[in-house]
Amino acid sequence: MPLPVGGGDAVTAVAFPGARRRTRGGRLLSAVMPGAPQLLVGRFGAGLTALLVWVGLLAVLVLRWDRVWAAVRVSSGASLDDRVALVTLVAGLAAAWVWSFRDAGKVQELRWVGVSQWVLAGRAFSRNRLAVLGAVGILILYLVALLAPFLSPYDPSALGDLLTERLVPPSTAHLLGTDHFARDVLSRVLYGARISLSIGFVAIGISVTIGTLLGAVAGFFGSWVDTVLMRIVDMVIAFPQLVLLITVIALFQPSIFLIIAVLGLTQWTGTTRLVRGEVLSLREREFIQAAGALGFSRARIIFFHLVPNVLGPVIVAATLGIGNTIVLEASLSFLGLGVQPPTPSWGTMVADGRSLMLQAWWLSTFPGLAIVFTVLAFNLVGDGLRDALDPRLRR
Amino acid sequence: MTAPLLQVTDLRTYFFTDQGVARAVDGVSFSVTPGETVALVGESGCGKTVTSLSILGLVPDPPGRILDGSSIRLRGEELVGASEERLRRLRGNEVAMIFQEPMASLNPVFTVGEQISEPLRLHLGMSKRAARERAVALLNEVGIPEPAHRFDEYPHQLSGGMRQRVMVAIAIACEPALLIADEPTTALDVTIQAQILELLAQLREHRGMAVLLITHDLGVVAEVADRVVVMYAGQVAETGTATEVFGFPSHPYTEGLLASIPRADRSGERLRPIPGVVPAPNDWPAGCRFADRCRYAWERGAAEAPPLLELETGRGEERAARCWLVAEPARRHPPIVAETEQ
Fold this sequence. Notes:
heterodimer; A: mainly alpha; MetI-like fold; 2 domains; two-stranded antiparallel sheet; B: alpha/beta; eight-stranded mixed beta sheet; five-stranded antiparallel beta sheet; 11 helices; 21% strand
């Protein structure tokens, strides 16, 4: 559907699915079941998210009441992990409820006036069901990672009885079975989400920041600054990444911080090239010249006028990059260079289960599936964002 | 005569490229007095825009450079060679500029209001709230309906004419003494053009702001300009008051420009475009730069470059043309006669 732009008030009343529909029986329903009223009027993304968060967190609260209570009591000696999980639980419940309650009371009227390109992109995104599914998946993954102390049935590093509980296939006691140290695989997969997600997120955060800064500087200043920076990028790209990672990690003691730093400091090249290319074309646009003619400093033009304009493609690249980084971390762990035992990591778990593949298929399969689904979710969201942020692909 | 607000003397802005030196602006002098509208007129490639960028110190360097000996004085203060810091405080504050493309001159990711507020906060140190109030007042002043509402809109939600009004609002936000308008109406349709010109004229009257209007549209010039500076090939071809230049063009280039606009009052007449194009700026001819395209050209033009020759108007106005015809008026023949179609 073509976007009516530039007309002002005349286009407010354009027929649009979801425009001017009032949520029926909104407030009452939303008070009991946040997200349900939104789902009823066909707002798939927002409704599903709120409903899932509400139901899921409520289930955790009820089923794991003893642990939640332990985290609440000051004297129980609860760890920082428990407290973080508690805060996540309470904040998530509150957010879902408050949002849904307030949202259901409003007349749903889509405005075209005073709407930023981000809002327009958000609308395009929420019409893409696969992407919304991916986003919901990512939200669940982060909730699982934060709530792992409440969710996991066992301590992920606790050894069970090596005689009776070793390599137990999936059963009611151990939903995903146990490994060769009689540790519960489900608990380890849940805790493993923390490693993968935090490494992916922080490493990409570092690399995107570096990449955007260098790319913007190279593109804006051009001439020798550009040449020097881009040749450095070429050099970093020319070096096989995995070899570089292995060398650096082999030189130092592998730790999660080292892995994050190394992954973050080797992946900025793609973003740099992307941002430089965008800035090169933006720099010639008249609004950048106009900013110069208004007496803005170079730093101001770069950071306040150019960078906001390249954020779209950067966010897409970052989302896809997180998936890529998670796979890289898993490969490093598989090679034994990742997070060191007993900290559970999906890559390490796949590697450990490899030799026992024929006797205990569940050891490698479940962490492997976790990697696949996580990367899939990030890629779906990345593709969805790319379509939503590109006005030419917006329908 | 009042002291000039802007005095440009012998401005030379050259571009040093691999294909040789492009003498985009080559010895241009003119002045603007407070509250006056001066039009810089000429075809594309005559150096109009480079002249305006030179005034703001925005010529891309490298490859561009303003040569020593050039002088640009604003209220007597020399701007050539001034520090970047000084120029930055000047831009948007004392001298503002509006660009040709209103579609591309606004940053798509910020609201209109944020973009008007930014120079206010930067140059005048206003608080966010004060800047907002001022911006709404400015939007109102440039004739945008519901200014408080429009403040929060994004450029893509405005029409071309609205956007150009917003550009004008941004430009006049800090009450500049001089507004440089680089083809402000070229990208707009005719009714909107008239509105924008009207707006500029009003603002000039209310604020006593001088306007340097850069255009190739002689219709626009006739409507708003007090004085005209006709540029050709990086030089001033002719200067004078608008009435003088339009009534009695003395440079054949001006004659040609005037003969090539369609006029409603002379229907049935053929348009007589100037043959050829402006020569490339790295390859100006040695003699008169217009000789190749001139209908009166004789040997003197090819051999000797004419200086700017003073003309007598009998009314004490400054009037000059860079043409040997001023020295040898008998050569101006045949006089321009309307060639009526059979």
